[in-house]
């Protein structure tokens, strides 16, 4: 039986053996509780038919659980110091490939094509570096990769924003872009005590399952996202005020903005945070001929 990496004793041993220190600037808070890791992997629905992408393997705590439960794992790690460590800690597993790269600069589509030939089920599973959570998730979704979904640990506050419903404080353009591409749900909240060192913020795990068909059909996706961002530009302002201030030449085109709101059946005095995805879709399509 192979000993888990994710225990306080083993983590300290590995760090000491390789003369390593935690780099706060790279979001290095390693998991030291095997139960949490088992929970994360179970929420991802992995089988030996699944190929898994991990971002930031650290010293391999989550990676080894992924190697045990999926067919193949490719892990992207930015910190060169961790490469020899991972070679050592993951030596019992022959189905793991570590790529030394910043995930934000990596051609993930190309890596999938090269490394995952024959796999139809691809998942992303990660304990994300918190300083860069949102850009990583958005990159993986906007590149429209052939993945079933993502199960990721992140700051609880960001998890709340991603999974928020209309009419709540946490609801905003991040909720909309992610809920447009995926069905997003919070599956676990996680105490600080399962990390070494402990982070300053609370954590949660969310599952984002990619949608085959978007929840709302729009004429132009980019413009739809532009309208949602414009609608939340100043949360206390009404839709009419935000749209006028943000849309090209909006100040001079009050009548056209009002007409679009009316066409979409949306009261101009409402605030962006009260609109559902479907309402944003209708609004974007009504604005598109004049402002798109
Ligand atoms: N997976 C390990 C665990 O759960 O114990 C480590 C998770 S730790 C929160 C985040 C990891 O992401 C670190 O290993 C860090 O070096 C790595 N990392 C930070 N920024 C990255 C980036 N832009 N691309 C790839 N890896 C990154």
What labels describe this entry?
RNA binding, rRNA_Ade_diMease-like_C, 2 domains, Rossmann fold, 292 residues, 9 strands, SAM-dependent_MTases_sf, KsgA/Erm, two-stranded antiparallel sheet, transferase, binds S-adenosylmethionine, Helicase, Ruva Protein, domain 3
Concise overview:
This protein is an alpha/beta fold.
How does this model look, in words?
The structure is a single chain. With 292 residues, the chain is of the alpha/beta class. The protein folds into 2 domains: 8-210, Vaccinia Virus protein VP39 (Rossmann fold, 3-Layer(aba) Sandwich), CATH 3.40.50; 221-291, Helicase, Ruva Protein, domain 3 (Orthogonal Bundle). 39% of the residues lie in helices and 18% in strands. The protein is built from 12 helices and 9 strands. The strands form 2 sheets. Strands 4-3-2-5-6-9-7 form a 7-stranded mixed β-sheet. It has a two-stranded antiparallel ribbon with strand order 1-8. α2 crosses α3, α9 packs across α12 and α11 (254-263) crosses α12. It is elongated. The mean pLDDT is 97. S-adenosylmethionine binds at residues 26-31, 55-58, 61-62, 76-79, 102-104, 127, 129, 132. Specifically dimethylates two adjacent adenosines (A1518 and A1519) in the loop of a conserved hairpin near the 3'-end of 16S rRNA in the 30S particle. May play a critical role in biogenesis of 30S subunits. S-adenosyl-L-methionine binds at residues 29, 31, 56, 77, 102, 127. Residues 36-212 form the Ribosomal RNA adenine methylase transferase N-terminal domain. Its EC number is 2.1.1.182. It comes from Planococcus lenghuensis.
């Amino acid at each position: 039986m192979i000993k888990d990496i994710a225990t306080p004793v083993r983590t300290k041993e590995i760090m000491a053996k390789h003369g390593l220190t935690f780099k706060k600037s790279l979001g290095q808070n390693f998991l030291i509780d095997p139960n949490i890791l088992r929970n994360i992997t179970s929420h991802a629905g992995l089988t030996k038919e699944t190929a898994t992408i991990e971002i930031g393997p650290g010293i391999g705590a989550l990676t080894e659980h992924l190697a045990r439960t999926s067919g193949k794992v490719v892990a992207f790690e930015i910190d060169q110091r961790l490469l020899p460590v991972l070679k050592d800690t993951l030596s019992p597993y022959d189905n793991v490939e570590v790529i030394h790269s910043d995930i934000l600069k990596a051609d993930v589509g190309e890596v999938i094509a090269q490394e995952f030939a024959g796999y139809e089920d691809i998942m992303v599973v990660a304990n994300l570096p918190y300083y860069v959570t949102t850009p990583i998730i958005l990159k993986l979704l906007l590149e429209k990769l052939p993945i079933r979904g993502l199960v990721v640990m992140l700051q609880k506050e960001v998890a709340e924003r991603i999974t928020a419903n209309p009419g709540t404080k946490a609801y905003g353009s991040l909720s909309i872009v992610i809920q447009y591409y995926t069905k997003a749900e919070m599956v676990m909240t996680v105490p600080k005590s399962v990390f070494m060192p402990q982070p300053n913020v609370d954590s949660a795990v969310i599952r984002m399952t990619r949608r085959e068909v978007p929840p709302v059909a729009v004429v132009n996706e980019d413009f739809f996202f532009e309208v949602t961002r414009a609608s939340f530009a100043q949360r206390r302002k009404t839709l009419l005020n935000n749209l006028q201030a943000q849309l090209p030449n909006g100040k001079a085109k009050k009548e056209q903005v009002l007409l679009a709101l009316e066409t979409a059946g949306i009261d101009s005095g409402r605030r962006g945070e009260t609109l559902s995805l479907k309402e944003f879709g209708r609004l974007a399509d009504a604005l598109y001929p004049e402002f798109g």
